[in-house]
Amino acid sequence: MSKHSFIIDHHGGAAVFLCTQCEPEAQLYVHARHFLDNALAPLQVVMDIRDNSDGRQAIERSLPNDRTDREGMMTRIDDKFATLQAAGKKAFVTYIMAGDTDYDTSLEVMRGLPAAGVDVIELGLPFTDPVADGQTIQLAGQRALDAGQTLKKTLAMAKTFREDDTTTPIVIMGYYNPIYSMGVDKFLTAAVDAGVDGLIIVDLPPEEDAELCLPAKEVGINFIRLATPTTDAKRLPKVIENTSGFIYYVSMNGITGTATAQVNAVAPEVTRIKQATDLPVVIGFGVKTPEAAKTFADLGDGVVVGSAIVERIGRGDAPADVLAFVKTLADAAHS
Amino acid sequence: MNDLFNSFMTGPDENGRFGDFGGRFVSETLMPLILALEEQYEHAKTDETFWAEMHDLWTHYVGRPSPLYHAERLTEKLGGAKIYLKRDELNHTGAHKINNVLGQIILARRMGKTRIIAETGAGQHGVATATVCAKFGLKCVVYMGAHDVERQAPNVFRMKLLGAEVIPVTSGRGTLKDAMNDALRDWVTNVDDTFYCIGTVAGPHPYPAMVRDFQSIIGKEAKEQMMAAEGRLPDTLIAAIGGGSNAMGLFFPFLDDKDVNIIGVEAGGKGVNAKMEHCASLTGGRPGVLHGNRTYLLQDDDGQILEGFSISAGLDYPGIGPEHAWLHEIGRAQYVSITDVEALEAFQLCCDMEGIIPALEPSHALAHVIKIAPTLPKDHLIIMNMCGRGDKDIFTVAKALGFEMGDFA
Question: How far from B275 is each of B241, B245, B338, CA to CA, in Å?
Fold first, then answer.
């Protein structure tokens, strides 16, 4: 690890870290909302640089003044929403289960998602006891586990995807135990290395932020929280407090892939959340069709479709057919 | 009395933790519900009218106090420690489960909930919940693993007679863990009118503490009864553990009596070995997060939960209450395991020597008594919690012993 001195300047949509000692090719392009928003004049900072295992350099995430979370490093997720917002478009987010129906199939689908119009990929982490999920995703997790999927393989999948795609955010979504079992520090190091941008861990409410949410923020990974119809006005600030990237509004009380989301119920809730935060609000649970994708995307800043896609993978549709369906959803959400 | 700074009875902390165990690992949808329950319970804890209602029902509906019975022939046969059985199998519905259900249903009524859901393994908690719901005119839905529905058929019929809807759960291997998953899925879907009545000292805070407090009537009575019978405290307490509610109920009032040995008995299934054909979470598992709490779990290298195996449906759970995990780590209680074969032998010995048909769950505890009693002096006092009766298990036992029920004609 070596100390480098940087001049931070604006360059197009990103901030450029110009190292005062290194060759020009060693410059690091870092998406840092804080610097874009606040650094009117170039800043000079000193940071640690370390070599990754693959020889590429990464910034040790310890920015000066401890601005290491959403006030500091701008993540791919922040970037993506900023870009979409600038273009007046809504985000289309999809969920697929890593390793479903096997590693190669899910990697093939994942690689095709950006071209099909997907803005953010939620990569499901299979778990034996997914208590927030309906049967479609339960079965997908079971198929993945039966095919030998593990947390390590899911991270490997993200890393392989990242080799060809450096802009589409990857959010790992699942339950805490596989991560706890690996060890939080080890997991976060591997997740940063794999190019993972965010986490949605269903069974970690704000009351358990010390477990993973705060350590994730420290390494620059967004911890995306679910807000639900039971999140009342008193509780909402607590839910928002350590959330970054975006807020995932769960359209109904219930599990994934069962009932159909209702516009009348969702619209006022999204308004309420948007009044409480500047973070993008994305709506999920119970969105199954292109029409619904458009309707709910328009209510907030984006929409998530999961079970409807997973169901097609599960019944054995070819990846190309799955991606064609995804495109109809994406086109509708973007229209 | 107890020194607050040197007591084992002060947990959990405000975050629902016993040491590092416990907590509130639930989805956001459920958080407001468990916080509301915690508030209600905190209020009830010091509310005299609440406890007056509990004691009235315990006395007149359940039949408490349950006797502390000196098992004389068993003591003589084993030739060592003096064995007492805490007879919670004599409770209405045939197990300790109803002690806790009454408490939770009274809270549910106070919270205005009209629909009660429960998970059940052996069916004893399901029967107790169905019973109390019938008594109070509440709708009752019980989730039960499909495999357990099959091996505990008499209890399924009892629940149906009591007006409960029994939903067989086919996900996973169809046992208690899977039933709890589906109960949680129900709760997250029906948040307004539904109360989740958990049957053991597990789940998110405040369940482990609340269920322990309701079950502690077992230990409180046993302490008084032993003082009356022998003029002193017992030397050893022994209880079977699945989730661990009967054990926690017996153990808790004795935690600060440091001369009292405390032993929990886990289900060793076919043996605590690498094949994981057992349910001994403390002996064969490691810490993890499941069903709202951090505790010892049976899991693989990837953190996937293993199914476990036991002849006893009530012990067939890959986790254990977080307070037990803590007592294990700090060394206040000792945890051992007993195999199916040992439990079956104890089951038969109890029928034979004491005229008591025990459930398969306390048969595990009894098997450990049989192991250690002969090695202890005659003035060593053991209390074993006879937490359930074995009527429900006769088909399972008959099958294990190679009897065909039709053969007796």
Answer: 20, 27, 16
